[in-house]
Fold:
Amino acid sequence: MTDNGPVAQTPRDAHHDLVSIWPLFGLRLTTERLELALPTPHDLVDLCRAAAHLQPAGQVRFQQSFLYAPSPERERQLLQRHWRALAHWRPDSWDLQLAVRLDGTAIGLQSMWATDFAITRTVETGSWIGLRYQGRGYGTEARTAVLDLAFVHLGAVEAGTEYVDGNVASAVVSRKLGYRDNGRKVSARDGERLLQHLMIIDAATWEQGAHRQVTVSGLAGCHDLFGAAT
Structure:
């Protein structure tokens, strides 16, 4: 018997293996210009760079104060929040953080989270887009993508969001998509009083609106992770 050496093996597809274990790695939301997906290591580097330039001086800040921390604390907290969201994921408490990609570059982050979704059927959303990409409708397009996922594919009945008093751009995006006012709340941030306006949209209002087309792929196997029945 002749020894012809080691038998060649077909290279394994690590991404495919990950998707089979954790289906969220295969989830993709695609719009006319954008793709939303769980961040890759390359995306995380892009996001750290984009987070360094979010708003012109003097503009009302976002709720997430870590985005204004000095480097490298800002970047490290961004990474930790991403890893924490995955590590703490449960069907009754989850936080979906999606990189917003434009031509392969991550330009911002769109989040959607829920507690006891199987019962409440309610989600919350939040996002940010890098300064150089603002004013082009990417934020509206990214929010449309996750709302389509929530209402059309996961069976949500309502979605909430909020914005800091004075953040006109965020309010405009929400109203454009059909949100209505839903009260306000006051909290403390960095030793100061912070007024936040609450907004909400229900499934019926969403269905009546004219929205950009969204393609959702890779959802098979994800419903249980969201606490949503298929």
About this structure: The two ends are 55 Å apart (CA to CA). The CA atoms of residues 73 and 101 lie 24 Å apart. The chain has eight helices and nine strands.
